[in-house]
Amino acid sequence: MEKEKLVSFGLTAEQAEQVFTLLNEEVERLRGALKEQAVLLALAAAGAKNPKVVKAALDLERVELTADGELTGLNEQVEALKKSDGYLFETARSGKNAAENGMAVHFDSGFSHGRMGGTDLSGLSDAEYYAAVMKKR
Q: Which residues, in sequence order, are bridge partners of residue 48?
């Protein structure tokens, strides 16, 4: 939202600035929470035995959550950790991924996922939503 639009609603310039600042702070807080959940979900998918412990070993300043929901800068760090500290990760059994081996970890952000195309995704868990989105690609 633009400050000028807030002023057009009858707020003073000072009030509009305060509202604008609060909105921006809240957006940044939500982005941080979303990034954290995305990292934990990606670590679980990568086979981390304890995603929170593995997350603590990462340089999250080098990890970015893009506008389309992709994490950049994470895979390189995870691969390096798998080489240096492999005990933090499950070993693949029979070539299956973590979910197929019964090692799936589910996180719930608490957000409604809405609709994608003609499909209602609002009742899905985050993991189910992610799987549905990946199938569409």
A: 89
Count of CB atoms situated within 10 Å of the CB of 45? 19
Pairwise CA distance, residues 121 & 112, whole Å: 8
Mean pLDDT by 10 residues, the chain (137 residues): 83 90 92 93 94 95 89 94 94 54 48 65 70 64
Residues 6 or more apart whose Cβ sits within 8 Å of residue 78? 42, 43, 46, 54, 58
Q: Which helix (H) or strand (E) holds 110?
A: none
Closest alpha carbon to 64 in 42, 82, 84: 42
Tokens (6 digits) for 49: 């035995």
Is pTM beyond 0.85? Reply is no
Number of Cβ within a 10 Å radius of residue 98: 18
